[in-house]
From TrEMBL:
This is Cytochrome c oxidase subunit 5C. It comes from Ziziphus jujuba (Chinese jujube). PANTHER family: CYTOCHROME C OXIDASE SUBUNIT 5C-2-RELATED. Its main location: mitochondrion. It is found in: Mitochondrion inner membrane. The keyword Transferase does not apply. InterPro entries: COX5C. The chain crosses the membrane at residues 16-34. Keywords: Membrane, Mitochondrion, Mitochondrion inner membrane, Transmembrane, Transmembrane helix.
Length: 64
C-alpha cells in the first residue's frame, strides 16, 4: 500500500499575462459600448438643436 500513488489535480496560481489580457479585452468592450452610447446621445441632442434652429419644434408650450 505504501507504494501506491494517487493522481491529484495540481492547483496553479492565476496567470498574470492571462489576467491582463482578459482585463484589457473586457475594458475595451466596455469602453466601446460606452462610446457607442455616448455617440447615440450626442446625435439625439444635435438633432434636437437642429430642429429647434429650423423652427420645426418649439420648447414653449402652446396656449389654448
Amino acid at each position: 500500500m505504501a507504494g501506491h500513488k494517487i493522481a491529484h489535480a495540481t492547483l496553479k496560481g492565476p496567470s498574470v499575462v492571462k489576467e491582463l489580457c482578459i482585463g484589457m479585452v473586457l475594458a475595451l468592450a466596455a469602453g466601446s459600448l460606452w462610446k457607442m452610447h455616448h455617440w447615440n446621445e450626442q446625435r439625439k441632442v444635435r438633432t434636437f438643436y437642429d430642429l429647434l434652429d429650423k423652427g420645426e419644434i418649439s420648447v414653449v408650450a402652446q396656449e389654448e
